[in-house]
Specification:
410 residues, 8-stranded mixed beta sheet, elongated, 2 domains
Length: 410
């Protein structure tokens, strides 16, 4: 009975999945007409990239696009990326926000209050550091020009590369297809003042264009530094906008919390074990966690109360809830969520929060909601412990007295 009442995972699925609707492009209606990257290698080893993306939304109404840039490469170094500007073809700036997710810099371009349709041009200017790799007889730039995360076709992609000094002789090669592909549906060669690569057929969803540029020794002063040294120079990215899901969850949570707190106050006066008068307030008393408020409301720790711990930890910055494009087995019309640890949780005070944090991140940095749901029965003892520790916490803090629960049950 207790297990059925306190199954937090199915409830969390029901709460999050209907809320999570992201602007995933429909390949049948949307297409990237052209993707042009102007890549300038500087003497100091930094690389400036200016991408001009001509995106056709068709008749769909969307808020904008996402551009994800990897912060590391397979068997390669960590890199630093600084976004200089995001604008249209006339230099008029677009609203955008930056976040770091799973080793990539995600740029969300667009305004949540404005819909766009038809053809739009996006010009993204950013600088990359720690990306030129040294070899015994040359230096090398290995760069995925388009990325492989686009859910739509790219009709044509082009990369134009320049190195210090127009007389510099360089070697270039290119590849196309999904990650790891060695297909060469592209042409690469010299151009006036530099080199370029062009696709010879459209790139399907999940495919990209990659270039490999060999640079003679002595042209670039600074190549890659050790990853540990680079990491020490990287700071958290300031988000210039807010992700809609991050806003929506706390907003709905606060509205729900205020509603049942007002109702709880009126009921508490007649509850056994209640100590003293309650002053009407529209925010929970200091130190009162959502699971406490829910437990006070009906004198029991139910599955909604347990689920509220996860949302509250996300609101307070201990974890991030990331919507993925991964389909859930046996539920193909639903996409999965990933819970990502942001803090170590050492400063958590509430016993229920400590237990929940251990369930989620014991020996791992993240977990998929579907994986957590599949292992729900393994956490039966922890859920019982959450119930017991929450009730004890409320007795210690004088919200319950020692005999209140027994009196209420009778």
């Amino acid at each position: 009975m207790l297990t059925r009442r306190l199954m937090l995972i199915p409830l969390l699925c029901l709460v999050l999945w209907p809320m999570a609707r992201v602007a995933v492009a429909e390949a049948s209606d949307e297409v990237i007409e052209s993707f042009n990257a102007n890549i300038s290698i500087e003497k100091n080893g930094s690389v400036e990239v200016i991408e001009t993306i001509q995106y056709n939304f068709g008749f769909n109404q969307k808020h904008g696009i996402f551009r994800d840039l990897p912060l590391s490469a397979v068997d390669g170094p960590d890199v630093g990326i600084t976004v200089n500007s995001v604008a249209n073809q006339n230099g008029e700036p677009y609203h955008y926000a930056q976040t770091v997710n799973d080793g990539s810099l995600d740029i969300k371009i667009g305004d949540a209050n404005i819909f766009v349709t038809g053809k739009k041009t996006y010009v993204i200017d950013y600088t990359v550091t720690n990306v030129i790799r040294p070899f015994e007889d040359h230096d090398e730039l290995y760069w995925n020009v388009t990325g492989n995360g686009w859910p739509v076709e790219i009709k044509h992609a082009q990369a134009e590369l320049t190195v210090p000094g127009t007389e510099t002789a360089v070697n270039i090669d290119c590849f196309t297809g999904p990650v790891g592909s060695t297909d060469k549906n592209c042409l690469a060669g010299d151009n006036l003042g530099g080199v370029e690569a062009n696709t010879t057929k459209a790139l399907e969803s999940g495919e990209g264009l990659t270039v490999v540029l060999g640079i003679p020794l002595g042209i670039v002063n600074d190549t890659v530094m050790p990853s540990d040294e680079l990491r020490s120079t990287i700071h958290d990215i300031t988000v210039s906008g807010t992700d809609w899901l991050v806003l929506l969850i706390p907003f709905l949570f606060i509205i729900s919390l205020v509603s049942f707190l007002v109702f709880a106050i009126s009921r508490l006066l007649s509850r056994p074990g209640y100590k003293g008068p309650v002053v009407v307030a529209y925010e929970p008393p200091a130190g009162l966690a959502p699971i406490d408020a829910g437990t006070i409301l009906d004198r029991s720790v139910d599955r909604k109360d347990v689920s509220s711990i996860i949302l509250d930890l996300a609101v307070r910055g201990y974890l991030k809830i990331r919507y993925t494009l991964k389909e859930i087995p046996f539920w193909p019309d639903k996409k999965d969520f990933e819970l990502i640890k942001l803090k170590d949780g050492a400063e958590l005070k509430h016993p229920a929060e400590k237990i929940m944090f251990g369930i989620l991140f014991d020996g791992r940095e993240s977990i998929l909601l579907s994986d957590l749901s599949a292992k729900a029965e393994d956490y039966e003892d922890e859920i019982k412990d959450i119930t017991a520790k929450t009730e004890e916490h409320l007795r210690v803090t004088d919200y319950f007295d020692a005999g209140a629960k027994d009196k209420a049950d009778r």
